[in-house]
Write a structure and sequence with these properties.
It is a single chain. The protein is α/β, with parallel strands linked by helices. About 30% of the residues lie in helices and about 15% in strands. The chain contains ten helices and 13 strands. It has helices at about 105-120, 135-145, 160-165, 180-190, 205-210, 210-220, 235-250, 295-305, 315-325, 330-340, and strands spanning about 15-20, 25, 45, 85-90, 95, 125-130, 150-155, 170-175, 195, 230, 260-265, 305-310, 355-360. The protein has a six-stranded mixed sheet, sandwiched between helices. Bound molecules: zinc ion (ZN). Zinc ion binds near residues 36 and 40.
Length: about 375
């Protein structure tokens, strides 16, 4: 349902709360709320953990449970997500193979934490909208948590994608129209009592899960930050997650500076650079013309002294082939990040060779075989 009645100070989440930067309203973690009563987008905040790593935790993103809202151990659903390889790619660059997750995309990080919080709150049904990886991730983690899921997809979503969602026991609902129609249908559905909106865009718990990729990179590099991180940006979840991780590590004195964030978009759809959309792109995962958190993502890139890079589809195709010939097969959206790094002549501000760079590869090639 929509915004709950009134503020709710939370005593059960160790000082963690969701809050609205627009008006200051505070909400309980895991509440049936996905945006503020004022319409503002929610963010998550909580006390800093002195030590981010729980060495006794299972080998999954719950290794970083100290930097996540506390949840009962029984609620911590897991499919072994996270802990993905960081592979030296030469030339001062690493590939973060973040597509090596249970449903083959980084979205599993966010889905794990979001569905865990939903389970902790006693949620029995979730609704989400997606044309791709987020829907599959939410369906899988809802199945793991024993929560019913209904995933709204746009008209024209491929049979293969629908089958992947349905295989996890989720209901696929087709919204007449495009991606925004699917989102609107899911939000309508979430207005009904007892239905939790498991949105990868609106729910800050999703970003909290994605944040663990930053902690992993830090730990894999020997508890230090790289000079730069290069990530695809559609709704900007990876940008926000990485920015949050390194801001926390900086506040804790565990890194000397946060990495510059290079946010990569397809030239045909780059709201971060302020350009009007022009046609289709093969990087469908980042083809988001009006991302709700645009201002927040832009601010995170700027605060990191990073840049927005745009890449043409032909460069994405070439980068994808280049990666595949190196043994790494990713979907076009992930290849966009490699395309930006490969073409260091453009835009100004991209890291130089030998510049200590991590390129996050977020989705597997099997997601889009052709
Ligand atoms: Zn508000």
């Amino acid at each position: 349902m929509g915004p709950p009645l009134g503020a709710a100070r939370d005593s059960g989440h160790g000082g963690w709360e969701q809050w609205c930067p627009t008006c200051g309203q505070v909400y309980v973690v895991g509440a049936m709320v996905w945006r503020c009563a004022c319409g503002g987008l929610l963010e998550l905040r909580g006390p800093l953990a002195a030590e981010p790593v729980d060495p006794g935790a299972p080998w999954s993103l719950w290794r970083y449970a100290p930097v996540l809202p506390p949840l009962r151990a029984a609620s911590r659903v897991s499919l072994g997500e996270g802990m993905t390889p960081l592979v030296a790619a030469g030339d001062g660059c690493w590939w973060k193979l973040d597509f090596l997750q249970p449903t083959l995309s980084f979205k599993d990080r966010g889905a794990a934490v979001l569905l865990a919080a939903a389970a902790d709150a006693g949620v029995e049904a979730v609704v989400a909208d997606s044309s791709g990886n987020a829907g599959t991730a939410v369906a899988a983690y809802a199945a793991r948590a024993g929560i019913a899921a209904e995933i709204w997809v746009p008209e024209g979503t491929s049979a293969a994608k629908r089958a992947a969602i349905e295989a996890h026991g989720a209901t696929v609902a087709v919204a007449p129209g495009g991606r925004s129609a699917a989102a609107a249908a899911a939000r309508d559905r979430a207005e009904q009592p007892g239905v939790f909106y498991a949105s990868h865009v609106y729910q800050p718990l999703f970003v909290a899960g994605v944040k663990t990729v930053g902690y992993e990179i830090w730990e894999q590099l020997g508890r230090r930050a790289p000079g730069s991180v290069v990530v695809p940006a559609g709704n900007g979840t990876l940008v926000l997650g990485l920015a949050a991780a390194f801001a926390e590590l900086l506040a804790l004195g565990l890194v000397e500076r946060a990495p510059r964030i290079v946010a990569v978009q397809a030239a045909a759809c780059s709201p971060l650079s302020g350009a009007a959309p022009r046609g289709e792109t093969i990087a469908e995962g980042i083809a988001i013309a009006e991302p709700p958190r645009l201002a927040q993502v832009r601010a995170a890139v700027a605060a990191s002294e990073g840049v927005v890079a745009t890449v043409e589809d032909h460069a994405i195709v070439a980068a994808r082939a280049d990666l595949a010939r190196s043994g790494v097969w990713v979907e076009p959206t992930a290849a966009a990040a490699w395309a930006a790094w490969r073409d260091r002549s453009r835009p100004p501000g991209l890291p130089e060779a030998g510049g200590d760079v991590v390129v996050v590869l977020c989705g597997a090639g099997l997601k889009k075989p052709a």
